[in-house]
């Protein structure tokens, strides 16, 4: 069973506009969420995270929103830049695993057009 | 600077061969992980290790084994490679404990083709 789901395999936006990537989870034990970014031929790199005690975390152009009641999180990128074109993975961890083990979603390919 | 290296970027093997994928991290991390990435399936955990000689199965351990004899090195072994093990293999490491909250550092990946 897929405990973390990213229902959109791809997203295309114009440079300068907002990109919104979505993620849903089913396991109520998840209490920490992360977004990773992956370029072709490279490993994923950590982008931003959020604890379940918050509903928003911001870092420059990147903001993650968490809606615990809906078991939904989203990543907003404003303004989007061509260099943001990559695959974005949502991931979740649970306190019961000492926060070490991550469960990843399927990924969303973001394309930002100049 | 954090660094995770993988022994090969590309590998081509034949069905039935024994395959070794090596991963080394220089951050003194307790945890190490092996994932495979397939289109539409995301990153799926094969095995992880939270200490030397310790290992735990992930979500898809069948057909794989691992070895961790030293803290900095984590090996993934395909005992008898099959075509359905053609994939991108990613190694990662992280600190142990809630303070690290799961932030993992990844190597560049090994693209394995089994013919």
What does this structure look like?
- The complex is a heterodimer of chains A (114) and B (115).
- Helices cover 0% and strands 55% of the residues of chain A.
- Chain A has 114 residues and is mainly beta.
- In chain A, the strands form two sheets. In chain A, strands 2, 4, 5, 9, 10 and 11 form a six-stranded mixed beta sheet that branches. Chain A has a five-stranded antiparallel beta sheet with strand order 1-3-8-7-6, with no helix packed on it.
- The model of chain A has no long low-confidence stretch (mean pLDDT 93).
- Chain B is mainly beta.
- Chain B is built from no helices and eleven strands.
- Chain B has strands at residues 4-6, 10-13, 19-25, 31-38, 42-49, 56-57, 64-70, 73-78, 87-94, 105-106, 110-114.
- In chain B, strands 2, 4, 5, 6, 9, 10 and 11 form a seven-stranded mixed beta sheet that branches.
- The radius of gyration of chain B is 13 Å and the shape is globular.
- Classes of the chains: A mainly beta (114), B mainly beta (115).
- The A-B interface holds A 4, 6, 9, 32, 34, 41-46, 49, 51, 89, 91, 93, 95, 98-107 and B 4, 9, 31, 35, 40-45, 48, 50, 58, 90, 92, 94, 96-98, 100-109.
């Amino acid at each position: 069973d897929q405990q973390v789901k990213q229902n959109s395999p791809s997203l295309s936006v114009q440079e300068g506009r907002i990109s919104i990537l979505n993620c849903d989870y089913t396991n109520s034990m998840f209490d920490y969420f992360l977004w990773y970014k992956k370029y072709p031929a490279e490993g994923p790199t950590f982008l931003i995270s959020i604890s379940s005690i918050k509903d928003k975390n911001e870092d420059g152009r990147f903001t993650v929103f968490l809606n615990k009641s809906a078991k939904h999180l989203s990543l907003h990128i404003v303004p989007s830049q061509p260099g943001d074109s990559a695959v974005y993975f949502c991931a979740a961890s649970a306190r019961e695993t000492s926060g070490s083990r991550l469960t990843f979603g399927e990924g969303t390919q973001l394309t930002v057009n100049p | 600077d954090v660094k995770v290296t993988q022994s090969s970027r590309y590998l081509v093997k034949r069905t039935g061969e024994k395959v070794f994928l090596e991963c080394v991290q220089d951050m003194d991390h307790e945890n190490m992980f092996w994932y495979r990435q397939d289109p539409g399936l995301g990153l799926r955990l094969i095995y992880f290790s939270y200490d030397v000689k310790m290992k735990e199965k992930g979500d898809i351990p069948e057909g794989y084994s691992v070895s961790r004899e030293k803290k900095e090195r984590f090996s993934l072994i395909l005992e008898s490679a099959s075509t359905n093990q053609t994939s991108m293999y990613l190694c990662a490491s992280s600190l142990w404990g809630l303070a690290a909250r799961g932030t993992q550092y990844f190597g560049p990946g090994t693209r394995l083709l089994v013919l």
